[in-house]
Each structure stands twice: as C-alpha cells, then as structure tokens.
Design a protein that fits this description.
heterodimer, A: about 70% helix, B: mainly alpha, 13 helices, about 75% helix
Chain lengths: ~300, ~325
C-alpha cells in the first residue's frame, strides 16, 4: 500500500478503461451521463415546471412535446425539473447507505466477538423487517421534505450493505497482510482504513450503484404514496399527481408514462454499469473471459458449461 | 432442531424489536401526534373520543416504562388502538378486512415469480450463451427497473382501459356475493391477473439471475461432472443434481425478498383499488391516521416473520446438512 495518491490516480483510469472495454458498462455509462447532464442543465432550458401554460390534460403536440398535466403545466418541463431532485437524492442516499453499511459491517467483521454478535443481530433484524411499511411509519412522523426522505431511505436500506461488507471483512481479516500489519503494531483504525478498505473498493462502488437504484425506486414509491413534499416537482410527485388527477381513467397516458420510463432507464443504466463492472472486477468472470478469448483465437467452441477457475 | 430453535429465537427477537420501534417512534419524533390530531378534529370529536385517542397513543400520565408494558399487553391481546380514518372502528378490525387480500396477492405473486424465474434461470445456465441466456437476463433487468406501481398503471391503461380485457379495479365484481361458487372464484382470478402479473414481471429477473449465477458455478463442480460421466440423463443432471443445490441461496433470499415484494404489492394495490392493506395505507397517510399506519406496519412485519420461519423449514428439508450437524 505505497503512495496513496498514485494508486488513486491509476484507480480512476482503471475504472474508465473498464467501462470502455465492456459493452454493457458502455451502454449504462452513456444512459447515466445523459441523465446527469439533463438533470444539471435541463431545468434552465425546459422552462418553469410550475407555470400554467395551457389547458389541462392536452395530449402531446408540437407546442408541448409531452402534453400538459391535470393542472395545465408542461409535462416535459416537470420531467426535466424532477430529474434533478430525484437523481440527487438517489445518489446521495446510495453513498450514505454504503458509508453506514461499511462502518457497521467492517467494525463487526474486524473486531469479531460480542461486537460482531450485537451488530450482526442488528442488521439481520433490519433486513427482516419489511422496508416500505417501516419507511412509511417513520416518514409520517417527520416533516415532509428531501431530508426526511433521505433519512428514511438510509434507515431502511443500510443493512444489506453491512451484511455483505462484514462477510468480506471477515475473509480479509484472516489474510497474511492483515496479520503482518497487526504484528507491525499498526493501530486498528489504520489497518481498517489503509489495509482492509482498499481491498473492497470495487465492491463498494458496486454497492453505491446498487443502492442508488434502490434509493431512486423507493423514493418514487414513497412520493407516489404522498409521503414526499407534494408541492415540489420530482419524479415521484409527478406520478402522485397523475394518479390523483385520475390520469388513467381519462386516458391521459402522457402524464405518467414518460416519468416511469425515465425511472426505469436510470435503473437499467445503473444496473448495466454494475454488471459491466462485475465482469471486470470479479476474478472468476475475468479468468473465464481470458479463457474464452484463448479458445476463440484457436477457433475452438467453448463447451456448454464453463470451467470454473478458482482464484486463490 | 437446534437450527429451528435458533431461528425461532431470532424471529421472536425481531418481532420484539419491531414492537419496541413501534412504541418509541411516536415518542422520539418531534411534536405530539395526539396534539396534532386534537387540532385537526377540534369540535368534531366528543371529549370522550379525544380521551380515547390519547389513550390509543398510550400517552397517559404513566411513566414511560409503565406505558411500554401497557402497550405490549394491548398488542398481545390484538388491540392496536382505534382508527382515526375509520373512527370509531378499532384498528384490528379495519386491518383484518384487508389482510386476506394482501396475503393472497403478494403470496401468489411471489410463489409464481419464484417458480418461473428459477426454472428460467436453470434453463439459461444449462444452455449457456444460447439465445435464452443472451436475451432473457437483460430483458428482465430492464423490466425489473420499472417501479412496480408504474408498470401496473401501464398495464391497467393498456389492457384494462383501452382494450377492456380486464376489470379496472377491485378484487371482485359488485354484483357477486363472496363465497366458494365457481362464478366468484373465476371473478377473483380475473381481477387478480393484472396486479399479480405486474408483480411477477418485475420480480422475475431477480430469481432468474441469482439462479443462473449459482447454477453456472454448480455446473462446473466435480459431482456434476461425475453425474454426467456416469451417463445420467441431462434432465436428471440438470434438475436433481445441479438445480437442487443451486437452489439454496435463492431459498435464503426468498424470506428477504418477501418483505420487499410485499412493499411493492402495497403500491400495486393502490393502482388497482384492490381492497388490501395498500389501500388502507393510503387512507392512513392521507388522514394522518397514525394508529392505523402502525397497526399495518406491525401486522405486515409479523406476517413476513412468519413466512420467513416457514422458509427456514423448507430450507431444512432441502439441505440435509442443516439437519445432521446442528
């Protein structure tokens, strides 16, 4: 673990190279980039989402590309404005959830004993309690707003990451390099942050992406129920108003279809990015890929079942 | 036996944690929920009703620890307090009317999606890199990215509203009386096709992927190679040797997925005006009916814990190792 600055620099270029090499990751990266750009600059171009621009429930036309809502606002403007808050909450929650999960999981896995027993019990209990009903009960007691939503999503979402990271820490803990660090007299904090955590970077990046998918979906669900700030414009509240204005029974498909498609596209893009990363960072899949390339060069068709190559 | 006892202990503990969380949440949060309700219902409720409301929250003059034990005793008796939205009906009565529908909807959907998804996963792993394996996982990742309730809205709009193939909501037609008649059962199935179908469609991919990935690893193991070398039929190797062992992680995941699917099912119910817990939940949120919300939370949690215990029994039956050693 020499020169952290240098490893970090090569780290990012390794990720970029990985994305470029894998087709799935490529597709995912393009989708996510487009949405992030729209979320950042879009609201300035698409006009005000709250302004009443015409008759309510107008179908898509050249003037309003995606029609108007039940109140007479422009659907496209609302969609674009909504992407900003929805994505911001999604990524912020994704990061926080993994951070909390890492603190709990790594502590449990590293210290073992009663610390592990207590913390494992805690996240196992949180895993088995159904998330949405718990989220609703907590959110109902707090003032509505983005921070409440974020808080609720973190409370209901951290446990899975903690569990995975605990298992990972447990296996790292037994390795020789950790034993060497202990013998060398390094402090526990230093061993965790400098020796163990760097070995789990790729896993944690994958977790952040996976958690962001969860956070965006769950956030839209909670807002759809009316637990968000219904006066703000987000993807979830758009759907809430569409349902409230009986969009379905008046046939106004344009008020809910585009929003759901965007949610799905973002989720799909993030998942693709993740599965692309997995093919690269998972040593087993990596070896398999090299093996198949080797066979391909010699024009041998790979057998049906793949030879499983262990990496230890 | 020890395995079951340990799991049972864990679920009891989880149930207690949920109960305790439920007790402390209203007390830790800013503001007094009862006071908010007093303001809301000022002049509409009699003084006795207001007093009953306050007691519903357990906000009596008792010390906290005393309140806690009173609360536990009430919950154990099945008394969750009095609903605000359906005043003066007790929460347990309100919940009881919708519980059957939610369990029917979520339970059927989870089982169907697990069976189909797992079988597709086996097929995808067996014909690795075939068209099935190339196409299905991506397609279902895409479908799985949709919010449950949004897919439900689209299905309702296209198949129900535009094409008119399915009813637009509720669990059965108004003109039928509930009973075990063929007409009633047929009508319930017709009403359930769209909600169950959308949940299955969204959740299928998870089972497919997890089964496919474990299956691929299992297919490379020695005992599967041996089974092949012995000349056993491919079906037997695929299902009895590989799939049975690859199933274990999926079964473990089943319990956890249940809570997640139930959450999605609640939202789906809202779209279809299905008379289950989801509909009640919306009423509770709109009317700030805290006792009802908390009652639903508790009942759903207990249902999920019970289902998890059931899954553990199945696991015990599937994996002989848990029976012998522990």
């Amino acid at each position: 673990m020499a020169k952290p600055a240098e490893t970090r620099a090569t780290g990012i270029s390794v990720w970029l190279k990985a994305i470029r090499r894998d087709r799935k990751a490529n597709v995912g990266a393009v989708i996510i980039t487009v949405f992030v750009v729209i979320a950042i600059i879009g609201p300035w171009l698409a006009g005000s989402p709250d302004e009443l621009v015409g008759m309510p429930l107008q179908p898509p036309s050249t003037e309003h590309w995606l029609g108007t809502t039940g109140q007479g606002q422009d659907v496209l403007a609302q969609l674009v404005a909504g992407s900003r808050i929805s994505l911001a909450i999604g990524f912020a929650v994704g990061l926080t959830v993994v951070l909390v999960g890492a603190i709990v999981g790594v502590t449990a896995g590293y210290f073992g004993g009663w610390v592990d027993s207590v913390l494992s019990l805690l996240f196992n209990v949180f895993l088995v309690i159904p998330g949405l009903p718990l989220a609703i009960v907590i959110a109902a007691y707090l003032p509505t707003g983005p921070f409440t939503l974020g808080f609720v999503l973190v409370v209901t979402g951290w446990a899975w990451n903690a569990r995975v990271l605990r298992a990972q820490t447990l296996s790292q803990r037994r390795r020789d390099f950790v034993a060497a660090a202990v013998v060398a007299g390094e402090s526990n904090f230093r061993i965790i942050t400098r020796e163990i955590l760097p070995t789990m970077t790729s896993l944690m990046v994958a977790q952040v992406i996976g958690s962001a998918v969860y956070a965006i979906g769950a956030q839209v669900g909670l807002e759809f129920l009316g637990l968000g700030d219904v006066s703000s414009v987000t993807w979830g509240t758009n759907l809430y108003w569409a349902q409230n204005d009986a969009a379905l029974l008046t046939g106004a498909w344009w008020t809910f279809a585009p929003t759901g498609l965007c949610v799905a596209l973002v989720g799909f893009g993030l998942t693709m990015l993740n599965s692309g990363f997995d093919e690269i960072t998972n040593p087993r899949l990596q070896l398999e890929r090299i093996w198949r390339m080797f066979l391909g060069q010699r024009r041998i068709k790979p057998a049906r079942s793949t030879p499983v190559v262990s990496h230890d | 036996m020890r395995f079951i006892l340990r799991r049972l202990g864990f679920y009891l503990l989880a149930a207690w944690a949920a109960l305790t969380l439920n007790f402390f949440l209203p007390r830790l949060m800013p503001g007094d929920p009862a006071a908010a309700l007093f303001a809301r219902f000022q002049g509409q409720l009699s003084p006795e009703a207001l007093k009953a409301l306050r007691e519903t929250f357990g906000l009596t003059e008792q010390p906290l620890i005393g309140q806690y034990f009173t609360y536990l005793a009430h919950v154990l008796k099945g008394d969750f307090g009095i609903s605000v939205a359906y005043f003066p009906a007790p929460v347990s009565e309100v919940i009881g009317s919708g519980l059957v529908w939610t369990i029917f909807l979520a339970g059927t959907a989870v089982v169907i999606s697990f069976v189909i998804g797992t079988l597709l996963g086996v097929a995808a792993a067996w014909w690795r890199r075939g068209w099935l394996d190339n196409f299905l996982p991506s397609a279902f990742i895409f479908l799985g990215a949709f919010p449950y309730f949004w897919l439900a809205m689209v299905a309702l709009y296209v198949l129900g509203f535009t094409l008119g193939w399915f009813p637009l909501g509720h669990a059965y037609g108004d003109d039928l009386t509930p009973g075990l008649s063929a007409a009633f059962v047929g009508d319930v199935v017709r009403h359930a096709v769209l909600p169950i179908g959308t949940i299955v469609l969204v959740t299928l991919g998870g089972w497919l992927l997890s089964m496919r990935n474990t299956m691929i690893a299992v297919l490379g193991s020695d005992y599967v190679n041996l089974a092949r070398a012995k000349g056993l039929s491919p079906t037997r190797v695929a299902l009895r040797y590989a799939a049975r062992n690859a199933l274990l992680p999926s079964v473990t995941g089943f319990g956890m997925a249940l809570g997640f699917v139930l959450g999605g099912a609640l939202l789906t119910e809202i779209v279809f005006s299905y008379p289950g817990q989801g509909y009640l939940l919306v009423q509770a949120v709109r009317n700030q009916d805290y006792p009802l919300m908390q009652g639903i939370f508790l009942v759903i949690t207990l249902a999920v814990l019970g289902a998890n215990l059931l899954v553990d029994f199945i696991y015990l039956w599937l994996d002989p190792r848990t029976r012998e050693r522990r």
